[in-house]
Amino acid sequence: MPLWQRHYTTIWLLMLEFLLSAHLFDTIVVTALHVALAVVVILVTRGNARLLAAEPVPARLKRISASTAQLAIAQLVIGLIVGVLRHAPVPKVLATIVTPFHLVVALAMITQAASVATAYDMRDEQELIDGPNKDAGPSSAKATKG
């Protein structure tokens, strides 16, 4: 699969993770799917970062891609902590406190994955080299010159 497709696949995998979490892990099957998909996200994001590191792209894209892979690992750890806190004989407020961190990291990951996918795709299509889109009108030319 071409690298640009892998980047967009990452976004869709993360969206699927959000959809699974919308069920609030009401069944063991949904929880197992959520964890399994988290492992897939780790593998894909690490693969993306490794492949992107070998590409002649700006260092910023490489850093963001590597950061997304690191966040994927942290996300799995945070998610496991949330799962343990939800089922352990501890006050439920602890899981309530940790869960927002899990969601914030997920939002950061999807934002970073979308950023890298778009930038890599634009670079691949040489949209950044050609200048403003001639069909976009005068406002895009002003925005790119300033």
Descriptive notes:
- α1 packs antiparallel against α2, α2 packs antiparallel against α3 (59-87) and α3 packs antiparallel against α4 (93-124).
- The relative contact order is 0.13.
- The protein has six helices and no strands.
- The longest helix is centred in the C-terminal third of the chain and has 32 residues, at 93-124.
- It has helices at 3-21, 28-53, 59-87, 93-124, 127-130, 138-145.
Mean pLDDT equals 84
Measured between the Cα atoms of the first and last residue, the distance is 37 Å
Largest sheet: number of strands, sense, barrel closure:
none
Helix content: over 70%
The number of helices is 6
Strand content range: under 5%
The structure class reads mainly alpha
SSE order: HHHHHH
Shape: elongated
Show unreliable segments. 140-146
Compute the number of structural domains: 1
Query: How large is the radius of gyration?
Result: 19 Å
E-strand count:
0
List the helices and strands and how they pair.
Elements: H1 3-21, H2 28-53, H3 59-87, H4 93-124, H5 127-130, H6 138-145
Relevant terms:
mainly alpha; disordered C terminus; single chain; elongated; 6 helices
In short:
The protein has 146 residues and is mainly alpha-helical. Helix content is 81%, strand content 0%.
